[in-house]
Amino acid sequence: MCPEGWMAEGAIQQIIERFGGVDVLFNNAGITQRGPFVDTDIAVFEKVMAVNFFGSLYCTRTAIRSLIQRKGLIIVNESVAGLAPLLGRTGYSASKHPLNGLFTSLRTEIRETGAHVMIVCPGFVKTHLQTRALGCNGPVTTHPQSRVGQQDTPEDVAEMIYRGALKRKHLLVLTPVGKISYWISRIFPILYEKAMARKLRSELEAF
Length: 207
Prior knowledge:
Elements: H1 3-19, E1 24-27, H2 42-69, E2 73-77, H3 90-110, E3 116-121, H4 154-167, E4 171-173, H5 176-187, H6 189-205
Parallel strand pairs: 1-2, 2-3, 3-4
């Protein structure tokens, strides 16, 4: 296991020892990247995958027995980018897609135990995530972000996640742009890809 895995395991174990167990695990840590695939170093993909995918895997694997015992809830902040393509962010999207496979499968495995998994897929949210996006060579990029539609606020997103958690929903697609992106990508995937390319092409041309 890598050092990040040991840190996550140690943190979860301390929580279990101090509080007696885990009732809710919210896998929310994440980083992003921006830039053309052809110019992006493999190390950038590895770093994004380590945080976004393996961070959730390590924490969940350590806490899973306690969550099952307490019929707890796992929340995974996956992003619409885990369900639909996102131009100029191949590393970010690649780190989010396997979360869907992992956690929908896990939900199936633990269904009879009373524990549950809720996957959250927001669109663009007004946080500092994009201001710290990795560039093609690793450091934070200075290129401005392009986006589709208005950003939602963290407060609105948190309230919707809270309400979804109370209802133990399976999939929570958030923000107006996120919902539109989800459905168009499902029903008209080629149309969605072309529209996404038109909206975000200028960002790639700036690199």
